[in-house]
From TrEMBL:
<protein>
    <submittedName>
        <fullName>Glycosyltransferase involved in cell wall biosynthesis</fullName>
    </submittedName>
</protein>
<dbReference type="InterPro" id="IPR001296">
    <property type="entry name" value="Glyco_trans_1"/>
</dbReference>
<dbReference type="Pfam" id="PF00534">
    <property type="entry name" value="Glycos_transf_1"/>
</dbReference>
<dbReference type="GO" id="GO:0016757">
    <property type="term" value="F:glycosyltransferase activity"/>
</dbReference>
<keyword id="KW-0808">Transferase</keyword>
<feature type="domain" description="Glycosyl transferase family 1">
    <location>
        <begin position="211"/>
        <end position="380"/>
    </location>
</feature>
Amino acid sequence: MTASAEIDSAHKYSILIVTPDTVGERMAGPAIRAWEIARALSSTAHVRLASTVGATITHPDFEVYHAGKDALRPHALWADVIITQGHILRSHPWLKDLDTIIVADIYDPLHLEQLEQGKDLPEADRYAVALDAVEVMNDQMERADFMLCASEKQRDFWLGQLAALARINPSTYDQDPSLRSLLDIAPFGIEDNPPVQTTHGIRGVVDGIGHDDKVIIWGGGIYNWFDPISLIKAVNIVAVAHPNLRLFFLGVKHPNPDVPTMAMELRTRVLADELGLTNTVVFFNETWVPYRERANFLLDADLGVSTHLDHVETAYSFRTRILDYLWASLPIIATDGDTFAPIIRDNGLGEIVPAEDVDALAAAIERLLFDEELLAATSARVKTYAVDHTWSRMLDPLIAFCANPHKAADRERGVISQRNQIVADLNKRIAGIESSSSWRSTAWLRALSEGVSQLRKR
C-alpha cells in the first residue's frame, strides 16, 4: 500500500507549493516537479501552486496562481504547509518567520551548478552569485521542517551540510536516528500513464529528418555543465558511415525568461556550423516543447543521450531529462559519474562512456543505435525498469509527511546553532540601541556626518 492510500481523508490540510519557475504550457524541470507534486497531493489536500514569475495554465484538481513579490503573502497565510524550491526563502525572507510548516525541495544542488554557470560572469559578480547560492541553500536547510532530495548519494551530501548547520542535533536524532523524518528521498518521476503519440514532432516535420532516419534526442536545454561538444564530434564521426544519423536538440529557448542563454549553447552552435552539420545532421529546436506534447518528440527518437563534464556538479546531479527517456522506453547513452550511470549500467538500459571521450561515445552510438536487435532488447529493459519510477511512487515520502505534517523536533524545541545565536543576540542589541531616545535624538548628527563623508568622496 502506498502512502497516499494510508492518508486519513477526514482532514485535508492546505498546502501551498511555490516555484520560482514559469508554470505554463512550456515548463522546465522545477515547474514540472512543482506541477506533479501538486497533482500528487491534490487528492488528499487542498492545494495551491504558485509561481513567482508567471502562471498561464490551470488544473481541475488544484488552484494555480502567479504570485510575485507581496502577492505571495495571502497564499502563505492560507497554508498549513508550504513547499518551496530554489531561492524562494531567500527572495521572500518573511516566509521564514511564519509559524507554518515548511518543506524544502532541495533536489537541485544549485550552488554546485552556479560554479559552472557563473564562469561567464565578471570575477566579482561570479563570486557574489556563487556565495549567494550557498546562502540560498542554507536558508532552506536551516528553516525547513522536512526536506526532499533526489538520491541516496545526494542525501549523503546534504547530511554533511545539515551537520555543519547544526540541524543534526540531539532533538532531530532522538526523533529519528535515521534522520529520514528530516531529510528523505523523492526523486523526479515519470507519468503513471505511458506516452501516446498523437502526431509526429520530428520525423517528416523537421526539414531534413525523415521517417527512416536514426534519431538521437537531447532531451532538454544546453547548459554549461553539459558536454554537447563531444557528442557533436562523435556524431560527426558516425555520420560518415551512416548518413541517415540525426541529432535533435529538443529545447533551446528556456521558458523562464530569467534563465540566460549560456556559453555552452553558443559553443555548440558554432561547432555544428564549423563542421557543416547544422540542419543536415544536427538540428536545434528553437522553442521549448509544450509539456503535454513532448511525447510526440520523444517517440520519434531511437535513442536518448545525456553527456556532461567531469566536475562536482555531475557527481551530485539528478539528470531529470533521463526520466523522459525512461518514460518513452528510449535506450540511453550517458556519461559516467552521475547518479544515473550505475543505474543504466547495472540494469542494461544503454551505454555509459567516460567524460569527454569522443571515440568511446562514437563507438557507443555505433554499437547501440545500429544494432536493431540490441536496440529493441535495451528498449524493453528500459520499459520494464520505468514501471517502478512513476510520480505516484517517487513522491511517497512527501505524501506521507503531508498526511501528518509536523515541525522538526529541533524547531519545536527552539534549538539554534551558536553561530545563529550570536547573530540573533547582535540583532537584538542593535534593535535596542536604535529604539533608545539617545539614538533618536542624535539622528541629525549621524545624518550630518554621512553627508560630510559623501562630499569628501567627490
